[in-house]
Structure formats: C-alpha cells, structure tokens
Amino acid sequence: MLNMVFLTNSWLSSFNQPGLCITMAMLLHYFLLAAFTWMCLESVHFYLALVKVFNVYVPKYILKCCLAGWGIPALVIALVLIINKDFYGNGSLSESHPYSNFCWIQDNTVFYISVVAYFFLVFLMNTAMFITVLLQIHSVKTRTQKRSRFWIR
Hints:
By secondary structure, the chain is mostly helical. The chain is built from 4 helices and 2 strands. It has one domain (1-90, 103-151). It has helices at 2-13, 18-50, 61-83, 108-152; strands at residues 88-90, 103-105. One of its GO terms (molecular function) is G protein-coupled receptor activity. The chain crosses the membrane at residues 20-41, 61-83, 110-137.
C-alpha cells in the first residue's frame, strides 16, 4: 500500500483538492510508519526465535503483533491530526519547492519527530536485536566447539 499511495500521490495532488491531499499525505505517512513498525516487529520475532528459543509462549501473539504493527502508526497519525490537520498538505504550496506536486507533511518539526525520530528508534531497536542475536549465535558456536574438543580428547 505504501508503494500504491506513493505512486498515485503526485497524480492525485494535481486535482488541487485540499481534502484529497490531506488524505493522501496521511495515508502515505501511515503506511510508511507501518512499514517501519513491522520491520521492528520482525526483529523482535527474530530475537524470540533465536535467543529466547524455549519457553516462549505469548498468548495471542499474532493478534498482539497486528495491534502493534497497525495501531502504533495509527496513534501517531491521530496525534498529528488532532494537533493540526494542516500539517499535511501539498508540497507545491511551499516556497522552497514551487514546482513539486506532492502531498506530504508540511511542517519540518512534525516531519523530524514523526518520521525521522520514529525511524531512528526503530533503527536502534533493530540494531540492539541484531547485536543480541549475533552474540547468542557466537556463544552457541563457542560452546559447540568446546564440546567437540572435549569429545575429541
């Protein structure tokens, strides 16, 4: 859906309908954040599968993942809309980009907080999970090599 909204955004912004542009910018923002959130959930799943292998039962795991994957971005979008729906709009209205027809976030502060900071948090979480998984794999490999040396002797 992120790709579909991105590809149709410029065309739909050419209709000069403020409501349509706000909707397209909101959908683009939502699906972008949802992609980041699902990427973060994949790293959590990777951690559970490779580090916490045994005795990991999470009741209604898929439902909880779906609520987080689709709900957290919806909360961010709802918060932005509650603060000011005019944060979304047509990029051609800005003086710095007079020829761009694209519906997106118009306020730099909102962009840096709701997209860049969100991505940075997901990136930190993924990096932490990746390092944890690598350390776990390394420790398993080390233990296996020690056991094999013991049995060879």
